[in-house]
Amino acid sequence: MSTQVNPALPKKKPYPFYLGGLAATIAASITHPLDLTKVRLQASGDKRMIESIKKTYRTAGARGLFDGISGTWLRQMSYSMCRFWAYDESKKLLGAGKDAPAWKLAAAGSMAGGIAGFVGNPGEIVMVRLQGDFAKPPEKRFNYKNCFDALFRMVREEGFSSLGRGIGPNVFRAILMNASQLASYDFFKEELLHSGYFQDNIYCHFTASFAAGTVATTVCSPADVLKVRASALTPPSFPMY
User: Fold this and answer.
1) N or C terminus: which one in the chain shows less Cβ crowding within 10 Å?
2) How many other CB atoms are found less than 10 A from the CB of residue 62?
3) pLDDT of 89-101, one tens digit each?
4) What are phi and psi of 4, to 5 degrees?
């Protein structure tokens, strides 16, 4: 009696890193009103989230909730795309495979965060300035038209070195974010799959992402405040790092 052997299932190919950058850009566009409110809470005198949202809507309408969205796109297409590429390459370099220990994943995330934080620093500054501009008094606003106008004017008015302003807090925050978020996502996903209650589908990815986002936000909150305040200020107000 012959037994039929099922052929091995083909190995699932990893998604290209640039799709991660595109997905991050779409997600950031959807959550932009909340990120805008976060920046204004951190960089201005606003104290409560709901009151800050109401203030933005009252002064600029629904469109005001998307102030500075071009800066968000620039930041995501530089920082996020770079970090996904760097994370994949760092895992290869460290030999962090499917069942790699958490410390290897965290080390790969730290390496990716340092690289992406450096590459994405100009986009980070532009994003924060565009988002926080309308929360300032008129005489203190930058009045940038869009992300490209912001980049050109920063170089022309403040010098090329202005693109590196706040790079210390930004890279530190990026290392913390990627070490905690990317590594914890991989860790939570593997644990969920091993639990027997989840399969490798959208429900597993959503649950792992939710848990990883909670960890990363908690870990990065102090560094995030420093990063926003460093990026929002002009040269005499904050030192270079």
Assistant:
1) N
2) 9
3) 999 999 988 778 8
4) -90, 125
Closest CA to 181 of 81, 92, 235, 106: 106
Q: State which residues of the chain have pLDDT below 50.
A: 1-3, 5-6, 9, 236-241
Q: How far is the C-alpha of 54 from the C-alpha of 50, rounded, in Å? A: 6
User: Token pair of 171, please?
Assistant: 């890279």
CB 193 within 8 A of CB 185: no
Q: How far apart are CA 178 and CA 27, in angstroms?
A: 17
Query: Cβ neighbours of residue 158 under 8 Å, at least 6 residues apart?
Result: 234, 235
